[in-house]
Every structure is written in C-alpha cells, then in structure tokens.
Write a structure and sequence with these properties.
This protein is of the alpha+beta class. Helices cover 20% and strands 18% of the residues. The chain has a two-stranded antiparallel sheet with strand order 1-2.
Length: 65
C-alpha cells in the first residue's frame, strides 16, 4: 500500500488545490487542516469516495505479565 500524501497545486491564476491521496475517512481533513489554516478561507471542498470509507484503526492490549 502506498504512503498517504498531500498534493498541492498552484494554478497560473493563483488558485490553490489541495488533494489528500491515500487517506481514508476524516483523516484527510486532519492531515490538511494546517494548510487550510495557513492559506485562508476554503472556496469549496469535494469529498472523494475514500472519505466515506472508515479508517483502519488497530488497538492491541496485552493481558498478563
């Protein structure tokens, strides 16, 4: 599986697009929040199908020793 990445595209007109690739669920919003905060108001958001998939969270607990 590929490492999740954040792609930032700056267009000639100055508009910026942020694309979170390889994230699942709301983790993409957490990963890009610092960019959105630094760059100012967001004009629009499009959620990809991966957003609606649950992030895999694994918890492990050891009992004994």
């Amino acid at each position: 599986m590929n490492q999740p990445t954040i792609e930032v595209t700056v267009r000639p007109d100055g508009s910026i697009e942020i694309d979170a690739v390889g994230f699942r669920g709301g983790t993409c919003e957490q990963a890009t929040a610092f960019l959105e905060q630094a760059l100012g108001p967001v004009a629009s958001k499009q959620r990809k199908p991966e957003y609606y998939r649950h992030a895999v969270v694994r918890k492990q607990q050891r009992i004994g020793r």
